[in-house]
Amino acid sequence: MTEEKCPQLVDYFVVAGLEGGSAQLDEEGQQRGGRVVEPVTDLAVIARGLGEEVPEGFTCIEKTQGGHPAELSAGLINNPHMYLCYRRGHDKPPILDLGVHYEGKEPTKPGWRVIETTPYSRSASLSSGGPTTHRTFLMYRRAPDSQALNTLGITDISLVMPSKGETAPHTFCRVDKNLNTGMWGPALYLCYKRAMAKANALVYEAGLISRYPEDDLDSFPLPDSVPIFCLPMGVTVESWPLNTKYQLPVFSTFVLTSACGDKVYGAAIQFYEAFPRDRLSERQSVHLGLVSVVDRRPITNRSLQVKKSICVLSHWPFFTVFQKFLTFIYRYSISGPHVLPLEKHISSFMHNVPFPSPQRPRILVQLSPYDNLLLCQPVSSPLPLSGASFVKLLQNLGPENSCALLLAVLTEHKLLLHSLRPDVLTSVSEALVAMVFPLRWQCPYIPLCPLRLADVLCAPMPFIVGVHSSYFDLYNPPQDVVCIDLDTNTIFQSEDKKPLSWRSLPRKHSKTLLTSLTNLHKTLEKIYMPGQEEATLEFLLTDYDLIYGRQKQLELEIQEAFLRFMSCLLRGYRTYLLPITQAPSERTTDCSSLFNLQGFLKSRDRTQQKFYAQLTRTQMFTQFIEECSFVSDRHTCLEFFDECVQKVIVDVEKPEDVRLIDLDESHSGEHTVFIMPPEEPQEADGSESPALYSYETFPILQPDLFDRPQDQLRVPARGSAPSSPAPRRTKQEIKLAQKRAQKYSSVPDMWSKCLLGHCYGLWFIYLPTFVRAECAKVRALHTAYEVLKHMETRKVVLPDEVCYRILMQLCGQYGQPVLAVRVLLEMKKAGITPNTITYGYYNKAVLESKWPSTNQGGRLRWAKLRNVLVAVAQFRQPVKQRRKSSSVGSCACPLSIRTAPRRLTRSLTASASLTGEMAGEGGGGPWYRGKHAGDRMSCLFFCSCLVVLPSPRAESSTFSPSRLCSRVLGPREAQGRKAVDENSNNMPSPSRGLAGKLQQLLTPTRHRALVRRAASVDDRKPGGGPIPGRRVSEQLDLTMVNAHILLQVLMSSCSLCRKCNSLVYDEEIMAGWTSDDSNLNSTCPFCSATFVPLLNAEICDLGPACRYRHASSPSTLALGVRASVEQSASAHFYGLAILSTNEFCRVWVPCVLCWRMNRVVPLVTVAYLSPLVLRKELESLLENEGEAVLSQGQLLDNHSIIFWNLVWYFQRLGLPSNLLQLLHSSELTTQLSQVLQPGDGNAVVRVRLLWDTLTPDTDQWPPLYVLWRIHSGMPMRNYSWRRHNHPFTLAFLEEVLRCVGMNEVHKAITLFLDTVAKQPGTPRVQRSLYREILFLTLAVMGKDHVAAFDKKYKAAYTRLSGSLGRDELRRKRAQPPSPKAVDCRRCFLVPLEC
C-alpha cells in the first residue's frame, strides 16, 4: 500500500521581482522599453469648410482606416467639412472613454463632457439640427485628477466606414452609434484604443527574490519559470510625479502544466514600491527623467518605483481565496509596526488551513481581527476541476462569439486572447479548453504568457495563448493567429481567412446551444452584481449562499449547455470503437485500427461532413479515441460523458430539457471550521509584547521566522495500492447503481435479481484474492468465466460492469488474452456495451498479454489423445456399474494390511491431486460435479481416512459401511445412524406420490426402517459396544494415518423482531431491505417495525478419533455427524474436495470420529448486511487497508461482520472461496480443543446454512418440526425442548400432515389456530403459522415440496380470508410471505436446511 498525504491547500509562497544581487541595473533595460505612446488628453472638432485650422499640438484625423475622407459631416447639405482632432500628453489625466450623444433623445451621462463647440466657438454638432432631427455631438470621459499614474487610457483614435468594407482595427473599441445622421452618405463610426498610460520605464525580466518552503516538495518541485509568470510583462522601474496617487495592486492568475498533464494554479498580485536612485546609471536616470538632459542636474519632483509580485502556487483553483490572502499579506507589509512578523501569517495559512472536505465543508479563516475569508468545498461534479469561469466567458464574449470560439477550439486554430485584465485571461482560457469536454487540448496552452515566451506565437502548431494587451504596443501578432480581445468583445483575423462563424457548426445542435447561451446571457445581465462586499463576518456566514448561489448555479448551467452540445456532437461514437480481438501488431494502437472513422462519418448528416472531417483529424480527437480504448487517468470523466450521451439519445427530440450535471449534495453541510490567526506572544509578566516588525518594502523572507508544519495536516492516509487488480467503482457507477436499486426496490421479481447481482459483484471483488491463492490460476479464471455464463443464464441484474472488468484485468495479469476476448463476447451477448473503464482494461489485457502461438498442431494432437481417453473411460463405465451392482456394499477399495502407511499416504495424495485436476477440467464450474468424478473423490477421501482395515474375516471380502458402524458402535447405535440416513433422503420415492409418502411417514418410529438392514449386521449384541475381548485399536486402528481435522460451521440468518417477538427468516429479511446502501435495517413483515437482522455462526470441532486413541472408555467413540445428514447443496468441503450430500454420506459415514457433547462451542453474532450495504463496506475496507486484508487473519478478527457476511453469501450461491481457511489462525478456534494449524492446507471445513435460528428460545413452545423429530427419536442439537408442556401431540402432528397431504391446508391452519386458542394465556409461539407448517412438511417430505406448499398455503389463506378476515389472520401471523419474499427465496436457488 502507498501512503498519500492529505491535500494541501497551498504548496509554495513566492516573492518575485528584481533580484538584489546586482548593485546597478543592466543597461539592456533601455532596449526593452518598446514604443511608449502617450495617452490622449484633449479632443476637438474643427470645421475646415468654415476656415478653422488644426489647433497647435493637436493631430487631425483626415482619413478613415481604409483611406477614405474622414469628414464627420459628409451627410449634411451644407457640408462644413468637420474633422476630429486629438492631443497627447501627460499634463492632464487621460481620456478614458469616447461616445456619441444624441441631444434630446437621451440624457447626458454623469461624468461625461459633451463637445458642443469648436475651438473657434462655433457649433460642433455633426447633424443639420432641423426640427425633425436631433443634434449629434461627441462626448468623452476623463480620468479624475486623483487617478493613479498607471491607469487605462485612450492611446489612439480611428474612424471606419463599414459600407466600404472597413472594420475596427485590432484592439480597438467601436462606438456603435452612427456619426452620419444625414439622408445620404456612408455610415461613419468612431473607434478608439485603450492601453496602459505608462510613464517612462525600464523593463527587465523577473527573478526569484525569496520563497517558502526553501526545499522543493517531492511531488512538485518549484518550476524556475514561476517569477516570469508572476510578472508576465517584466519588472518595470518607473519614475512618477510626486503627487501621483498610490497605485492599487493588480491581481493576476496563471496555469502551469507539467509534463504528465497535471495543472498547477498560480495567483499573484503585482504592486509598486520605492526604489533607490543610487542603483541607476546616469543613462538610465536620463531615460527615466530623473536627470536633466543638458546639465545633468537631478530632478527632485519625481519618485522612483519598481514593480514586485507575491504569489501562491496550489493544485486547487481557489483564486478568490488566494486574492484575499495575498491582499492581506501585502497590506500587512505596508502597515505596522506589528508584534508578529509577516512570516508567521504565511506559515499559519499554509500549514493550519485544511483543505475543505465533506467533514468540514466550510472553513472560516480569521487572518486578523479585521480580516477574514471563507473557504468552501468545491462543487462535487464528475467534470474535471479547473479554474474556468463560464460566467466571465459569456460576459466578455457574448453568445455568438462564444460559439465561434467553440468552433475554433474544435478545429484547432491558433488562438491569442488578450486583455488589460490579467485575471480574466486565465478564467476565460480555462473555460475555452473546458467547454470542449470530453476532448482535451493537446497543443501549447499558456493562459497568461510572459513576454519572454512570446515566441510561441510563431509556432507552426495550434495553441491557446493569453497575453496582456500591452503586448501589442511592442509587437504585432502573426497573420495566421486569431486574436480575441476580451475587453472589446471582438475577434480579429487576417483578411485572407474565412471569418469564424458559429454557423459552421452542425446546424441543429448549434442553434440549441446559441439559444441556451442567449437566455443565460440575459439572465446574467440581470443578476450579476459586481463589487460585492465580502469583508464582514456577518456577510460570510449569512449572505454567501444567497448572493453567490445564483451565480454558481448559472455557472453550471452555462457549462451544461456546452456539455449538451458535445454530447449531441459525439452521439453514438462508442458504436464505432474497434476492440482488439487478435494478436497485436505494429498498427494495432493506431487510431484507424481503434475507431471506424468512415462508419462514424457516414452516420452524420451530409451537410456536416466537412466539419466532422476537420474534427476527426485533430490531435484532440485522436487522443480521445486512445483514452477511450485504453486505461486512462480520465476514465471517470469519460464514463460520465458516456452517461450524458445516453441521456441525450433517450431525449433526442428535446435535448435542452435533459439535466446532465447532477450535483452531489450528500456531502454538503453547514458545518463551519474556524481557523484563528496566530497567537501573539506575551511578556513574562503577562503584558503585550512590543511591536517590532515594520517594513519599508516587502521583505526578503526569513526561514527562521516561519512556524513548522503541524502533524495533523500531514498524517499519512492509507489507500488501496495503485496496482490493485480490482478496479473500484467510480462515483458515477455508484450513483447509477443506487438509482437502479431504488427503481427495482418496488418491483418484487427485479428486487431479488438486484440483490443477486450485488452478491455476484461481491464475489468478483474477492476474485483477485481467490485467484492469487489458487495454484491453478488459469482454472480459477475459467471458473469465473463459467460464473459469468451462469449469471447470463439466470438473467441476473448487474448494478455495474465491475464483474466483467475485474475478470478482464485478471486475464491480462495472468496472460489469458483469448479468455478476455471471450469475456467481451459474453458481455455483448448479455446486451451490455462496455463503458470507457471496462473497455480500457479489456484492450490493455489483450494488448499486453502474450498470445498463444498460431501453430495448433501440438494442441490438436493432445486434444485428440484426450478425447480418446475420455471415450475409453465412457465405454468402460457400464462394466463398472454391473460389477458394482453385483456386490453388496459400496466402495471396492481393498487395501493390504501390510501396506506401509507413509507410502500409501503419498500415493493417495498424488492420486487425489490428479483426480481433482481431471474433475476440475471436466466440471467447468462449481455447479457441475460429475458423478464419476464424485465417486473417485469419495473413494480417495475414504482411503485417505482409512488406511488399515479390520483383521480379515470370512465376511470381509467386501467392505460395508454398515458393518464398520456396527463393529464400532454396536447394532443399536448403527441402526439409529441408519434411521437418520433414511430420514435424510429427501428424494421422493418413484412409486409413491405425496399422499403415499405422507401415509408412510405418519407413524414415526425408528425401528420400522431398520429391521431389514439389521439382518445384514453380524454383531447384534443388545447392549451395543465393541466385540468382547478385543480392543478398539484392534477393531480400527487409525493412529498410523495423518487424518484431517474437520471443522463444521453452522450459520443462520433467522432474526428476532423485538417488537412483536416474531422470528423473521432469510427471504423476509431480504424483502424488507431498502435500496439505501447505508441502511442496516430490515422491516418486520408482521408489525412493520424496523430492526437490524443478525447473522449467527456456530463453529464445531469434529476432530478425528486418532487424537483420542488413549481414551479409557469405548463409549467415547461415536459417529462425528451432528443430528441428521440432510441433503443440502449448501454443504461444502474445503480442502481435499467439495462434496455433495450423497458423496458426503459415502465418505463421512465410514470415518470414525469423536463426538464431544460437553464442548463449549464458539458462537459468533454479527449484523446481517444487505448486499448493497456489504458491498459499500467492502469497497471502503479495500480502499483503506488494501486488498491484502482479504487473505489475512485480521479480516476475521477485526472485520468479522464483513467476513461472515461474505461467507454466507458465497455459500448461498455455491461460489468458491478461501475465506474459511482464515479460521486456522483465528482466535475463535482457540476455544476448541483441537486447533487448526495455519500450515495445514488439507484441513476440511464444512459449512451448513440453516433456515431456523441457531439459538432458539427454550422458554417458548418448540416448533412442530422439532417435535416430529423428537417423536421420531432423531438426535437433536438441543434436548431442552423435552421439558416443555405444549399442546402439540403426536396425533396433532399427524393430523396436520394428513391435511397437507390431502391438499386441505386450510384445515391444518384452522386446527393450529383452534389448538393454540384453547391454551390459557399468551401463546408462546415465535414462528408464524406458515413457518410452523412449512418446516414440519420439510422435515417429513424434503425440500423439493416448498414451491408446491406455497401454492397450497396461499390458496388456503385466500379461502380463510373470507370467513376469518385478513386482519384477524394477520394478527395471528397466519399470512403467507409476500411476493417479494417468495421471489427472493426463489432467486437464491439453493434452499436452506431446516
UniProtKB/TrEMBL annotation:
InterPro entries on file: cDENN_dom, dDENN_dom, DENN_C, DENN_Domain_GEFs, MABP, PPR_rpt, TPR-like_helical_dom_sf, Tripartite_DENN
PROSITE patterns noted in UniProt: DENN, MABP, PPR
Single GO BP term: regulation of Rab protein signal transduction
PPR repeats: 800-834
GO function term, MF aspect, one: guanyl-nucleotide exchange factor activity
GO cellular component: cytoplasmic vesicle
Pfam annotation, one family: dDENN
Xref: SMART domains: dDENN, DENN, uDENN
Region of interest (Disordered), ranges: 1012-1031
Domain MABP: 37-196
Lineage: superkingdom: Eukaryota
Keyword terms, alphabetized: Guanine-nucleotide releasing factor
Coiled-coil ranges (or none): none
Protein name per Swiss-Prot or TrEMBL: DENN domain containing 4B
Taxonomy of the source species: Eukaryota, Metazoa, Chordata, Craniata, Vertebrata
